[in-house]
Amino acid sequence: MTQDSAVPVFGAGRVRRARYAVAAVFAVHGAVTGSFATRVPWIQDHASVSAGQLGLALAFPAIGASLAMPLAGGVSHRFGARAALRGLLALWTLALVLPALAPNLLTLCAALFVYGATAGMSDVAMNALGVEVENRLDKSIMSGLHGMWSMGALIGSAAGTVAAHIGADARLHHTLAALVLTALGLAACQGVLDLHSEPDEEPPPRFTLPPKSALVIGAVGFCAVFAEGASLDWSAVYLRDVMGSSAGLAAASTTAFALTMAVARIAGDRIVDRFGAVRTVRTGGFLATAGGLLVVLASGPALALCGFGLIGLGVAVVVPLAFAAAGRSGTNPSRAIAGVATITYTSGLIAPSAIGSLAEATSLIVSFGLVTVLASGLVLGAGVLKAGDRKVTQGGVPQPAPAGSPAGD
Predict the structure, then answer these.
(1) Are strands 392-394 and 195-196 parallel, antiparallel or unpaired?
(2) How far apart are CA 406 and CA 389, in angstroms?
(3) Environment class of residue 406 by beta-carbon count within 10 Å: exposed (0-12), middle (13-18) or buried (19+)?
């Protein structure tokens, strides 16, 4: 995708404003997720589904996202990046209403499929625009953008917690939230870069396998998301069942982990700019591996909490950097980003159940031994992000990296 021929160069001020606009889009996207997550118990009761049926239904967002993500490139090609993001983000924010309206398992699965499909397509569109802005600024912003997503999720979940506490009907809560977030999202989209494909550029295929570069980069993202998902969903259980901690301390571990991720992502861009993507991810892999070992070998809750904190610090910036690398790894950024996103979504889908199944067959300690092994994969695989080094810019227009310049570190 290239700039519209009528606007050959974006000025530095315009690009900086686009950065804030994309950051706002990420926050809105995260707020939808946070709003939904807090009302899952209400939705379960309204649809009259068991815990097992709810688990089945909650697989459908990832299924919908995985199937729909490859379509995002075609939408952007046809309508332009700004219009595509505006439409896809609006569909995602409005889809928040659907799960609370579902009266049974079948309709809940269908609603969550649509919810996931719109989430995935808007996710690809906003990450592709984030990479474009990063290229033009010639400094890392993707970690901070994903940090804004985490902050949005925290704000959405806080509002949802208040709504649940006062006993608000989730249909009313999600309708109001959807209207507010749709308005905020449309306003934010006005500030993003308006990019268009060249008139003679071939449209991307509707469905295609991810490029090889995306598969390799996605494998690194897979390791990080698996460790993240396992820690978010199982840290409280681990502290309660293995460490014998109180229910309050166990619950606090999940919130602490989420906050650690958000703070690390917001601060991550400065680290990436100073040390490079490869070195940052490799160091993060060492931290996450050390955290996993600390969790497995911990003799008390305090050490286990420290271990989960190290895992969060270690994996926080990996997915943003994987998206950034994918966006520069070939001639079709949306296709590569969609490939990486599909792999990471799959990892997030299977991680909780894989940890549970392994724990049932062995123990939670063994399960987090697996997390530790995957975390070490970040150390070994960090070098694949070398292909995603930022391009040098002149006047806001990306240029090829100088001959002989380092590609990653």
Answers:
(1) unpaired
(2) 8
(3) exposed
Give the span between the Cα atoms of 106 and 109, in whole angstroms. Answer: 5
Of the candidates 125, 188, 154, 82, the one whose C-alpha atom is nearest the C-alpha of residue 323 is 125
The Cβ-side half-sphere exposure at 232, using a 13 Å CA radius, reads 21
- C-alpha to C-alpha distances, 279 to 106, 220, 286, 384, nearest whole angstrom: 47, 14, 11, 11
Please give the pLDDT value at position 205. Answer: 58
Lowest mean per-residue pLDDT among 195-204, 316-325, 378-387, 400-409? 400-409
**Could you report how far apart the first and last alpha carbons of the chain are, in Å?**
27
Locus of tokens 């499909």: 117
Burial 374-385 (b: 16+ CB within 10 A, else e): bbbbbbebbbbb
Judge contact between 224 and 315, C-beta under 8 A.
Answer: yes
Report the C-alpha gap between 15 and 143 in whole angstroms: 17
Instruction: Kindly tell me the sign of the dihedral angle through the C-alpha atoms of 99, 122, 24, 288.
Output: positive
Residue 254 has pLDDT above 60, yes or no: yes
Instruction: Give me the pLDDT at residue 203, please.
Output: 61
Kind and range of the H or E element at 121? helix 105-137
- Give the residue, 240 or 25, on which the prediction is more confident: 25
What value, to the nearest 5°, has the Cα angle with vertex 89 and ends 84 and 94? 135
How many Å apart are CA 339 and CA 256, to the nearest integer? 30
Distance in angstroms (rounded) separating the CA atoms of residues 176 and 308: 35
Confidence of residue 298 (pLDDT cuts 50, 70, 90): very high
**Backbone Cα Rg of the chain:** 21
Tell me if 324 sits within 8 A of 206, measured CB to CB: no
Tell me the torsion sign for CA atoms 309, 314, 317, 323: negative
Strand partners, 394: 397
The CB-side HSE value for 30 (13 A sphere, CA atoms) comes to 22
Phi/psi class of residue 89: alpha, beta or left (left: φ > 0; alpha: ψ in -120 to 50)? alpha
What is the rounded CA–CA span in Å between residue 103 and residue 16?
Answer: 45
32, containing H or E segment: helix 12-37
Alpha-carbon dihedral 354, 357, 363, 364, rounded to 10 degrees: 40
Whether 38 and 174 have beta carbons less than 8 Å apart is answered as no
Query: 150-182: per-residue pLDDT in tens?
Result: 889 888 888 888 888 898 999 999 999 999 999
> Which residues make beta-bridge pairs with 393?
398
For residue 351, the one-letter residue type is A
